[in-house]
Amino acid sequence: MKRAPIGIGVAIAVGLAVLAFSTTAALGIDLGDVVKVGGIAFLVDQYDEQIDSFITSALGEREAAAKGATKVVPILSLGGGGYIGAAQVVGSPENVQRVKAVVQVEGKFGDFRAKVLVPTTTSKASGSPDRAKGVGVSAVIEFKI
C-alpha cells in the first residue's frame, strides 16, 4: 500500500479548502461535493492496488477477468459532470504502466447519450487527452456526487 507523506496530505486538504471556498459561490458548487470528489480521488490513489484486486477477483468469479496487466486509475469527467470514480485499464504491462487517468467525455444528442472513455498518459482533463495506445478500459466504478 502506498503512503503519502503528511505534508502532501495537508497540502491537498488546504488546496481543496481554497478551491471549495473560491468556487462555491461563483459556480454554485456545494462544499460537500468538493470534499467528496477530493476524498474519492485520494482514496483511488491510495488504494488503487486493492481496488484493482477486487475488480479482477469479481470479474474472475464470473469468468470475465481481463487478459493482460491491469491497473486502477481515476476517471476525469468532461461534459456530463455529477460523477467521480475509477477505471480499471488493461493491456500490456509497459502500456498500462504509462496510464495516469481515464478521461470520460459525455454528450447528449437528442434522445441519445454518448460516453467515451479514453485511457490517457496525463492526469489533466483539459485539452485533448493524450491517448495511451494499446490500453482499454475493462471496468468502471462511479460515485454520484
Order of helices and strands: HHHEEHEEE
What's the count of strands? Answer: 5
How large is the share of residues in beta strands?
A: 25-35%
The order of strands across the largest sheet is 4-3-1-2-5
Keywords, please?
alpha+beta; 4 helices
Give structural notes.
- By secondary structure, this protein is of the alpha+beta class.
- It has two domains: 1-46; 66-144, no CATH class.
- The chain is 40% helix and 32% strand.
- A five-stranded mixed sheet has the order 4-3-1-2-5.
Give me the secondary-structure topology.
Elements: H1 6-27, H2 31-46, H3 48-61, E1 69-78, E2 83-91, H4 93-98, E3 101-109, E4 112-120, E5 135-144
Parallel strand pairs: 1-3
Antiparallel strand pairs: 1-2, 2-5, 3-4
What is the gist of this entry?
The protein is an alpha+beta fold. It has four helices and five strands, in the order αααββαβββ. A hairpin with a 4-residue loop joins strand 1 and strand 2.
